[in-house]
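[Discussion] Sanity-checking designs against the backbone

I'm trying to build intuition for which residues belong where. Below is a structure token string of 157 positions. I'd appreciate it if someone posts a full sequence so I can compare it with mine line by line.
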């Protein structure tokens, strides 16, 4: 059902322009990876604190507040570079289970990050126990690891 849409995506001029170039795909993928390193840092610094590790002298709310612009900036870079990468090989992505795993984990990761994780990291409320923080930190790390690992696996599939 979706295949005609993916075939149409691959025929768009941007995808064709990238396919026709020797260097554009690796350059865009390098920026994708740079975005990943900033995203990884912004996620890790807060999730490690939620797990009771890392920067223990800083309140969770302070770390989450300071990491938020980096998190959002990195997400913008990942999506802005991910879409051209996708357009250059959308039919390959259609047949790649790793791509579907990545997009599923990415959708869940984004909702989780801006709902449950945001609530736990932006308020020092009574119900916000260390145990709850640890569970949220572990889930967040697992989700973003799945996105990154599936992204890497697309290249192998
Ligand atoms: C925001 C979270 C994202 C993360 C953490 C992420 C992570 C990754 C990683 C680790 C790679 C492998 C890079 C390499 O090893 O060279 C990759 C490649 C890729 N990503 Fe993403 N990505 C994200 C968003 C997206 C989005 C939104 C799309 C498309 C709509 C996308 C499409 C791709 C494609 C097509 C590749 C190339 C796979 C290949 O090598 O053929 N990514 N991504």
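Best answer:
Here's mine. Compare freely.
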């Amino acid at each position: 059902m979706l295949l005609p849409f993916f075939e149409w995506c691959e025929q768009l001029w941007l995808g064709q322009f990238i396919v026709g170039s020797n260097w554009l795909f690796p350059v865009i993928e390098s920026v994708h990876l740079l975005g990943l390193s900033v995203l990884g840092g912004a996620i890790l610094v807060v999730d490690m604190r939620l797990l009771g590790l890392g920067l223990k002298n800083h309140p969770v709310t302070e770390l989450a507040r300071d990491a938020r612009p980096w998190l959002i900036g990195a997400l913008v870079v990942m999506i802005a570079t991910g879409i051209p990468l996708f357009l250059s090989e959308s039919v390959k992505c259609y047949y790649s289970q790793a791509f579907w795993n990545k997009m599923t984990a990415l959708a869940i990761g984004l909702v989780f990050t801006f709902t449950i994780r945001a609530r736990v990291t932006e308020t020092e409320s009574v119900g916000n126990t260390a145990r709850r923080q640890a569970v949220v930190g572990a889930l967040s790390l697992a989700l973003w690891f799945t996105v990154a690992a599936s992204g890497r696996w697309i290249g192998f599939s």
